[in-house]
Structure formats: C-alpha cells, structure tokens
Amino acid sequence: MQTVHALDPLRNAVSELRTAAPVALVPTMGALHDGHLTLVREAKKRGAAVVVSIFVNPLQFGANEDLDAYPRQLARDSALLEAEGVDILWAPTAEAMYPAGFASNISVAGVSEGLCGASRPGHFDGVATVVCKLFNQVMPDIALFGEKDWQQLAVIRRMARDLDLTRPAADAILGVPTVREADGLAMSSRNAYLSAEERAAAVSLPTAMRTAIAAIEGGADVPATLAALEADIVAGGFRSVDYAELRDADDLKVLNTRSHRPMRLIVAARIGPARLIDNMAVNP
Ligand SMILES: Nc1ncnc2c1ncn2[C@@H]1O[C@H](COP(=O)(O)OP(=O)(O)OP(=O)(O)O)[C@@H](O)[C@H]1O
Ligand SMILES: CC(C)(CO)[C@@H](O)C(=O)[O-]
Ligand code: BAL
C-alpha cells in the first residue's frame, strides 16, 4: 500500500493503478471499523484497485461540533487498510485539500434539506464540496458509501448526476448496507464517545426503530408512531431526538402516511456526548 499526503504523488500513483484495473474510491474520515472495511471488501469483490481516503473534513463540522474531538488514528487505520489489500491510502493534509484562499462551495438543493441538513446547517455543503474534490482528484470508476449515512448517499448521488462526476453507469456510486454490532447498534466512529452504560443504552435506538417499523408496516398512524418512537428512544436513555422521520427512500420526500414506494425510517438522537444516526427500510 502506498500512502500519499499530496496531490501530485496521488495522481501519479492512481494513473499507474488505472492501467491494471478499474479504480474504486472509498472516502472516510478514519477511525476505521468493520463498516469501513466492508466498503473496501465490496470494492475488491468487484475486481477494483482500491483508494481509501482519510480526511477529517473541517468544512462539514459546525462551530459547536466535534471536529477537535473526532478520533484520529492514522497508524492504526493504515495497518488495517494494508491488511485488507488496499492499494493507496490518500491522507491529504488540510493545506493540500484547502489551499490558502480556497473559496468554492457545492450546495445540493432538495435532498440536503431537512434531517441532518436541518440539525447540522451547512453540513452537506461541506460533504458535497469535499466529495466533489475527492472525485476530481482520484477520478474513480466506482465509489462506495455506507447506507448508514442515507441522506449523505442521496446528496452524493444527486451531485454526481448533476455535475457529471462519474461514468454514466447507474451503479457507479454503490451504497453498502449498514454494518451493525452484535446487539444491533450501527457501527460508527462516534460510538467510541460512549461510556459502558451509554453504550448499553444505545441499543434502544435500533430496537425502538424496529418496533416503529412493525407498527407502520402493520398500518398504524404514521405521526402517532413517530411520536411514540421519539418517546421510546428517550425512555431508552437518549438525551434528545434531533429527528425521527418517515421518508421516501429515493427522493427523501416527507411521508405522513404509508406509501406504495420503498420508504425509510431515518433518525438522529443524542446520548452522552454523542449524536448517533440510523435508518432502516420500511416496506410498502
Ligand atoms: N456501520 C456502517 N456500515 C456501513 N458503512 C458505514 C458504517 N459506518 C460508516 N460507514 C460509511 O463509511 C464511510 C465513512 O464514514 P465515516 O468515516 O464518517 O464513519 P462513521 O463511523 O460513520 O463515523 P461517524 O458517523 O462517527 O462520523 C461513509 O460512507 C459511511 O456511510
Ligand atoms: C463522505 C465523507 C468521507 C466526506 O468527508 C464523510 O462525510 C463520511 O465519512 O461519511
Ligand atoms: N458520517 C458522516 C460524517 C459526519 O458525521 O460528519
């Protein structure tokens, strides 16, 4: 595995890779867990050479968020990626990503609004801007993202279509199902913020979501079920719920009644110092 920290060596290394295989990009912010490694394995299953980026992107953090606290473990991450057979680790410095005078911004209307777009103003502009740069830097044939960040995946797909960022194949941006701990909690780098007690309580989030999904699929009133879900999450030990919404799975339109199209239950809630997100399919 080659580790590169500046753009010219990255481009040279990727050009060499491209002669042998299609190139897959897996963007991350590091502090890697099995969710991230599953993205790498899915890329390798498709016969691609794999570029993993690790960059804790300041543009996507709000002023009062956890940019400084976010775990940085490059040596450990690098060993994990090497063991997976990753070809290039792209770990740009902040100066390489945002040179002095950087003044551009990518904003994706519609899908960025509401949900995390409402509770983290500016977040998806930061994500879209850095992911657009990563696509231009690596020019991958495919890119892989986790379904755990469902709204992020929708934002990136919209941006890639609008700005012609990937080859036209519909599957150039692959969404990979959420990898969970044995008790059902979605893996996240932010789970490391939790005390043992908070970690034990955090399982109430996916458990309460499954109860709400069974109710909605069984025909229960949607707003009443979402209100009960919020109450269950707080009763389970969470401090507060940023949102708990039923959305169309593809265009993310708000749903107040069951739809005949695939739906998604999408939630963000706070426990101890962590803000956790999760989402699950709701069948028509
Ligand atoms: N549990 C998971 N299963 C599948 N993919 C995941 C999982 N967790 C993260 N990913 C994906 O890995 C990529 C990088 O995510 P990121 O580095 O933000 O990790 P994270 O664990 O989600 O961290 P956090 O949510 O705490 O920021 C994203 O595409 C994200 O959706
Ligand atoms: C896609 C991403 C790497 C952009 O910084 C980040 O939002 C993440 O880790 O999901
Ligand atoms: N997993 C999305 C990155 C973030 O929370 O900032």
From TrEMBL:
* Pathway(s) the chain acts in: Cofactor biosynthesis; (R)-pantothenate biosynthesis; (R)-pantothenate from (R)-pantoate and beta-alanine: step 1/1
Query: Which GO CC terms are listed, alphabetically?
Result: cytosol
EC nos: 6.3.2.1
Q: Where does (R)-pantoate bind?
A: Q60, Q152
Record keywords: RNA-binding included? no
Which keywords annotate this record? ATP-binding, Cytoplasm, Ligase, Nucleotide-binding, Pantothenate biosynthesis
Q: Which organism is it from?
A: Novosphingobium guangzhouense
- Other known facts: The reaction proceeds by a bi uni uni bi ping pong mechanism.
Question: What protein is this chain from?
Answer: Pantothenate synthetase
Q: Which CDD domains match?
A: PanC (cd00560)
Which InterPro entries did the record assign?
Pantoate_ligase, Pantoate_ligase_C, Rossmann-like_a/b/a_fold
The record's similarity note reads:
Belongs to the pantothenate synthetase family.
Q: Which GO terms describe its molecular function?
A: ATP binding; pantoate-beta-alanine ligase activity
Q: How does it assemble?
A: Homodimer.
Identify the catalytic residues.
Answer: H36 (proton donor)
Q: Which Pfam families match?
A: Pantoate_ligase (PF02569)
In this chain, beta-alanine is annotated as bound at Q60
| Compartments where found | Cytoplasm
**Class of the enzyme per the UniProt entry, highest EC level:** ligase
Where do the annotations place ATP binding?
29-36, 146-149, 179, 187-190
Report the principal subcellular site. Answer: cytoplasm
Write out the catalysed reaction: (R)-pantoate + beta-alanine + ATP = (R)-pantothenate + AMP + diphosphate + H(+)
Highest rank taxon of the organism: Bacteria
Q: Enumerate the Gene Ontology biological process terms.
A: pantothenate biosynthetic process
Q: What does this protein do?
A: Catalyzes the condensation of pantoate with beta-alanine in an ATP-dependent reaction via a pantoyl-adenylate intermediate.
